[in-house]
Amino acid sequence: RSRPPPLRxxxxxxKPTLSPLLPYREVDxxxxxxxxxGSSPLRRPGLSDSEDVVYVGVIPSTPPxxxxxxxxxxxxxxxxxxxxxxxxxxxxxxxxxxxxxxxxAGRLLLLQREEEVxxxxxxxxxxxxxxxILDCIVMSPSPAADRVSGRSAISLHLQGQSRxxxxxxxxxPTEPLAKLMEDYTDRMGxxxxxxxFYFDGVRLCESSTPTQSDMESGDVIDVRxxx
Length: 227
Hints:
single chain, 227 residues, alpha+beta, Ubiquitin-like (UB roll), 3 helices, 12 strands, 18% helix, rod-shaped
């Protein structure tokens, strides 16, 4: 057993003699308790080591606003500039031009480097830049099903020497090509007598029909203007 400290008399009161090491021992014990407390992980009551839960706070980030691009479209000698989001469909471009020209949007055809552009695509998917210029073709109204053969009309591409001379015209399989030729020259402002039409290297006659010339929808007719 440890003996109690000796008593000293001071007048009538008796005071215990304190060892000078006691305060240091108290501090050392407190530090040990703090170290033991800090080394043991805090757990919620009732959770084992395998049930530790980590709570992570996630701050939702605001998505950046889509970038805007000006789509340039050339149609019948006019250049249209249409602002569009890069993630918007190109259908909006066709609708804008159709409203400006007062035509049915279904008659418009978008071309990029002489290839048709699906209207479901976007400026990003087509990799369009502000330097690109799309071409827009106004197709003639589709006639009703051909009465003679009962087959639907076909769309033929008439291409001259320049890119702007491309026109898409619909015609019945058994209709004379004279209607198609007149429609093309009227659109381009040409004299009918100065224009010749060729398919697979063979000059076409006005009385011929697409069926007789073995034409299918999407075929290209070469247009040559005599000087």
